[in-house]
Amino acid sequence: MASQKHLKGPDVYARTFAADEKSLLAIAARLEARAKHSFFQQVVGDYLGALALGGNESVLDLGCGTGAIARMIASRDDRIGRVTAIDISPYLVETGKRLASEEGLADKITFLTGDAHSIDELQSQFDVLIMHTLVSHVVDPSTVLQEARRLLHPDGRIVVFDGDFESLTYATDAPDGGAETDRLQAIAGHTQGRVMRLMPRLLSDNGFRLEWSKAYVAADIGRSDFWSSTLPALRVLLPSAGVMSEREASDYVDKLESASLKNTFFASCNFYTMIARGIHTG
Q1: Domain boundaries defined on the chain
Q2: What is the pLDDT of residues 63-106, one digit of tens each?
Q3: What tens digit of pLDDT does each residue of 90-102 get?
Q4: What are phi and psi of 5, to 5 degrees?
Q5: Among 77, 226, 248, 279, which residue is least crowded by beta carbons within 10 Å?
Q6: In angstroms, what CA-CA distances link 209 with 146, 213, 258?
Q7: Rounded to two decimals, what is the model's pTM?
Q8: Which of 5-14, 177-186, 272-281 has the highest mean pLDDT?
């Protein structure tokens, strides 16, 4: 059976179950900062609007990280039923509990620790299951989708939002324009860089019918904005992944931050949301 702990690559976001505290602090800070950005606020607003929730639905945020999306959902609409948030990292789950308590949402969200490849105890309990930047980091996307199908009610809906990280690029003044550092970031930052290109077929193969989708580009041109909170994380996470030394990572980020100050920064990545409904089989 597939397990996240079978991961072979160095993707730091995929190894939060075993990461050191310095890396976890950097990851948590990045997850919280990006969730507050207007881009992610729009993304979540778009898919909640498409879901048209309002009937006391049960919602599962699978691969919740610090619970930023679960908290966003729980705080937006009192008509939504209880939200469950699951992550493989005990550290991030405890962080999520603390933040939910600080925001007065502790009674609306249940936090659990678990591997998205196998959540045995919650079969057929949810109306909506959200995977917000999860599938790019899992060992086996098909197994995770099969698990999602089992966790949902027969006609429940799944929301998959993630980046097409093969398109992620940070321009630099290197002779190759940043191609090599893009390659190193790809090794360090995701496991399934092309998974969203495959998602329509993966959904169909695993018992879902695609109902809604939307494409986005997160691009900072001139000055860093959405990507600005990634830069301090890269100082920690690139060395943690073993793709750069601390000095190399620091020099890399220094140059990116300098480019932003000079209004010559460029970073971009494509993102996609897909909503699909479970297909009755009997």
Answers
A1: 4-165+192-215+272-278
A2: 999 999 999 999 876 667 789 999 999 999 999 999 999 999 99
A3: 999 999 999 999 9
A4: -75, 0
A5: 77
A6: 13, 12, 46
A7: 0.96
A8: 177-186
Amino acid at 203: L
Residue located via tokens 């890396």? 23
Residues 85, 83: Cα–Cα separation, whole Å:
7
CA separation, residue 13 to residues 120, 142, 180 (Å): 23, 19, 20
Residue 42 is which amino acid? Q
CA angle 191/271/223 to nearest 5° reads 105
Over the chain, what HEC string results?
A: CCCHHHCCCCCHHHHCCCCCHHHHHHHHHHHHHHHHCHHHHHHHHHHHHHHCCCCCCCEEEECCCCCHHHHHHHHHCCCCCCEEEEECCHHHHHHHHHHHHHCCCCCCEEEEECECCECHHHCCCEEEEEEECCHHHCCCHHHHHHHHHHHEEEEEEEEEEEEEEEEEEECCCCCCCCHHHHHHHHHHHCCCCCHHHHHHHHHHHCCEEEEEEEEEEEEEEECCCHHHHHHHHHHHHHHHHCCCCHHHHHHHHHHHHHHHHCCCEEEEEEEEEEEEEECCCC
Identify the CATH class of 4-165+192-215+272-278. Answer: alpha beta
